Amino acid sequence: MEPLLGTFHDAITGETITRELTAEEVAALPEPTEPLE
Amino acid sequence: MTVKTFTTEVLTSADTNTYLANSGLVYVTSATVGTSVTSHAVTNCFSATYDNYKITYAAGVGSNPVSIQMILGASVTQYYLGLQYVTYATGLAAAAGANNSATWPYVGEASPNMTSVNIDVFSPFLAKYSTISGSYAGTVGGVVAGYHGVATSYSGFTLSVAGNTMTGGTVTVYGYRKA
Q1: What is the pLDDT of residues B96-130, one digit of tens each?
Q2: Does a structural domain hold residue B87?
Q3: How far is B40 from chain A (nearest CA, A)?
Q4: Which one of A12, B84, B110, B177 is CB 3.0 to 4.6 Å from B44, fit for a cystine?
Q5: Which of B39, B40, B171 has the CB atom closest to A29's CB atom?
Q6: Reported pTM
Q7: Interchain pair B162, A29: CB under 8 A
Q8: Digit-coded pLDDT (tens) for B39-63
Q9: Would you say residue B13 lies in a domain?
């Protein structure tokens, strides 16, 4: 399984990074929503 | 602020700066979404400077048509939302909702040809319930509104697509000027 990535942007510093999500961040990801039809 | 009406004057720097600083919707920050990311977090974008904000996400793509979900800070409880939408092919209306969910589940959509988030967020930095309202443009078209039932101050938010990815496009935050 490929690692899950996330973008992180700090509005104060202006820094934006893309990195692999930590195990805690992956665990906090939401469940998929029902398709809208 | 006194509103001036200009006719043929040459604008002074003072007038120009005054009107730039007193615009209704003020740019706070923006960032390009990474390649094949599941989430996009923006920190330190909410502050005491503004009470209410507009968040947009456009010009990106998603791996599959899937709704974009949103949380404030790290809070994963007490999100309430209603989405009323119309299916393009039939014109028929339908609805979806969330009751004490872990996210606001339908704040936008990422699909192979576009991304769309257009959400106003009210009072996220105040230690009060936050509310949202906006539009949903994607597989269907609709309007969305809801609230977060936790009276806590948050300085940022995260957009995510469960089981899918987003690539490119820009997430922008604006503040509604108070006075």
Answers
A1: 999 999 999 999 999 999 999 999 999 999 999 99
A2: yes
A3: 5
A4: A12
A5: B39
A6: 0.93
A7: yes
A8: 999 999 999 999 999 999 999 999 9
A9: no
DSSP β-ladder status, B93-101 and B170-176 = unpaired
Q: Which residues of A touch B172 (CB under 8 A)?
A: none
Complex confidence, ipTM: 0.96
User: What's the pLDDT band for A3 if we cut at 50, 70, 90?
Assistant: very high
Amino acid symbol at B129: Y
- Of B100, B124, B120, nearest to B108 by C-alpha is B120
How many domains is chain B partitioned into structurally?
1
Nearest to B67 by CA among B120, B110, B116: B110
**Interface membership of B173 toward A (CB under 8 Å):** yes
B16 touches chain A (CB under 8 A): no
Contacts of B45 in chain A (CB under 8 A): 11
Domain of residue B171: give its range: 25-176
Please report, for residues A1, B108, B153, the alpha-carbon distance to residue B50 in angstroms, rounded to integers and kept in the order given.
Answer: 42, 23, 13
Q: What is the CATH number of the domain that holds B82?
A: 2.60.120
Residue B125 lies in a domain: yes
DSSP, collapsed to helix, strand or coil, labels residue A25 as helix
Could you tell me if B72 lies within 8 Å of chain A, comparing CB atoms?
no
Q: Which residue type is seen at B17?
A: N
Is residue B131, in this structure, part of any structural domain at all?
yes
B 108-147 residues with CB < 8 A to A:
138-140
